[in-house]
Amino acid sequence: MTGQKIKTKAFVAFLVAPAFLVLIGVVIYPFIFNVVISMSNMSLTHIKDWRFDGIRQYVKVFTEESKPNFYGIFLKTIIWTIVNLIFHVSIGLFLAVLLNQKDIRGKAVFRTILVLPWAVPQLIVALTWRGMFNYEYGSINLMLTQWFGLPAVQWLKSPLETFIAVIITNVWLGFPFMMIIALGALQSIPHELYEAADMDGASWFQKLKNITIPLIRPAMVPAITLGTIWTFNNLNIVWLVSNAGEPSDQTHLLVSFVYKAAFNFYRYGYGAALSMVIFFILLAFSLTFMRRTKATEAAY
Amino acid sequence: MTKGAAIVNSSSMDSRRLHILLFICFASFVLLGCLSGCKPKKEGKIKITIWHQDRIDIRLVLESQLQKFMKLHPEVEVEQLFKETESLRSGFIISAIAGQGPEIVYGPADQVGPFQVMDIILPLEDLFDRAYLDQFDPKALTYYKGHLYQIADKLGNHLTLVYNKKLVPKPPTTEKELIAIGEHLTQDLNGDGKPDRYGLAWNYTEPFFFIPFMTGFGGWIMDDSGKPALNNPGTVDGLKFIKDLRDKYKIIPNESDYEISDLLFKDGKVGMIINGDWSWSGYEKAGIDFGVAPLPKISKTGLWCGTMVSPKGFSLNANISEEKKKWAIELIKFLTSDENELEAATILHTMPTKRSVLASSFVKNNDIMKNSEIAIDHGRPMPVVPELRAIWDAMRPSYQAVLGGYKTAEQAAADMQLDALNKIKEMNE
After folding, report:
1. Span A164-180, average pLDDT
2. By the number of CB atoms within 10 A of the CB, which of A172, A285, B232, B376 ranks highest?
């Protein structure tokens, strides 16, 4: 290696070092510490004198007969994630396609209005929606009863309705992200491709299938992967709209269950083990999804 | 010079320029980081930080008192930081375990239990002289496992019946009067078949607000040995009573959490609300002519609906340095001085803790303060054991299930007890 090359490498290492140190401090160290805690008995009574406890906390995650238990909440989390993602992507894509039309006036205004849900802090969104779901005074029931003549729904009193309420809130909150990503991807598709397809007599569907979808895929797949992870791990909306799992602790996702175990009951070992389980679920999903969709392959 | 050599020279020059540019960027980031992160300390000052979860009007009073303290002691800088209740607890635990955290942590007495078990707050009995401690009402000094861990400047955190004087000229003293007034007030004013005004509202999804009904019917959450005792007739009758208020007498809204009930009262859409001492100044600001009364007596038992009473006060972080400890003690003495307690009581209507201030003409003659004191007398002290957290969490689901119609009151009381035992076992594993 020449002196110049060594110098260059040393310089690169010098520049990268601060970022790497930050990474160690905020990602690698906490992650390793979480793994260690997950194999300990750390709790309210053993916070300073905790000891190694093997995989006992992991066994408890899968076998503890709590109400609700891991499997019930896991199923609910999967339903929550899938339903949210379907709505986020379909509404986001639909609006992006609309905004990408040439002959729409005031695009910037529409785009700003549609991005608003994303710009409002989640706490405010959640508490506003909670108020809107009130049985007697909430705007949702007032609309249902006064405009559509439907009976009022007890949104926040029974488990199913509450779960639907939190999904509605999160759908409203989540579609702008997908819309922005899809719009960016749509705008980057060269118009000549569509012109060439028109000359070849391609139908609307053929253009969608052979040009639009393949070319927005490299942007959408990572966005969907990210969206899945964010939705799966979305504590704020579920926690705030359902007021910490109401009614009767029936509105929990895995992540809100971890929060409750760790910070309400001081079960740090158990909470860390459950968070590791969530991590592995999401890791497995991300790797499989990225591989199957070939997201990292170039589009052109 | 050949063309090739010129290209090599130019590329090496570009690379050097790029390196210089990158280095300048890097140095700027480091410098900026230092400038923002390494905020210069005020020269030679000792910094004391207080974490609390008080609402804005209390914060303003506290801030003005801290300013006075800093004027008296220019060598000390005191900073107050607001944190939401749960963030304060979890944040203090995490930071104190790591040897950090604020010097003083302020809040209701029930945080003493977990903090003591984790050994992150200091016993105070040897840090304050006996003469000083004797000035307090005994309820203000929170002892746990034989040691003093908290000195309060406010008593209460208690629930009362707040009533709109325009709608309720005389507050009820029994549950029968409460129902009668409630039925009179609950009215469909616009003829759409739905009540536009209710007699009473409160946050009836939260078990803390259920406690007065439980005690009114003769129940309590723990037995004398400190074990959960939720499966008692008081729990069953209290649950049935609340359900009757909604379904039989129809004097409370169908669904009502804290925000909704608070808004309804402020809008004059409900005549009475069950709320705590923290809410009164908000009603004052909203321009409501309100009164405060103790919660009514239950005719069947002859018992008052007794609220949980908890002092709110100061504890010292176990990691505090000797130098800062001296000033933290001085600060606590200052904030609990007669003058400052009376100022807070006058502005906020919070109940003071010093005997001399409790005997002051303001506390004895002000209508709100008088009734607040009666409500405190009817109440029971909130246990400070960490297991209380498990009890709340065991009560909440079954309580909500009764109101949602999924469980009978008897089944709920039995489930609450079973859940509490299980959760305590999980917590203490």
Report:
1. 95
2. B376
- Reduced to 3 states (helix: H, G, I; strand: E, B; else coil), residue B59 is helix
CA dist., res. B93 & res. A44, Å (int):
10
pLDDT tens digits along B5-62: 444 455 555 666 666 666 666 666 656 655 555 555 556 789 999 999 998 889 999 9
**ipTM for the complex?**
0.75
Asked if the Cβ–Cβ distance from B90 to A246 is below 8 Å, we say: no
Antiparallel, parallel or unpaired: β B297-298 and B303-304: antiparallel
The A residues from 253 to 272 touching B (CB cutoff 8 Å) are 263-267, 270
**Can you list the positions of beta strands (E) in B209-254?**
none
pLDDT tens by residue, A62-73: 998 877 889 999
SS3 state at A73: helix
- Do B138 and B148 meet the contact criterion of CB atoms below 8 Å apart? no
**Predicted pLDDT at A68:** 80
Search chain B and give the residue with CA nearest A158.
B404
Please give the Cα distance from A295 to A289 (Å, whole number): 8
8 Å CB contact between B199 and B181? yes
pTM: 0.81
Taking the C-alpha atoms of residue B5 and residue B16, their distance in angstroms, rounded to an integer, is 16
Distance CA B299, CA A60 (A): 48
Give pLDDT, residue B224: 87
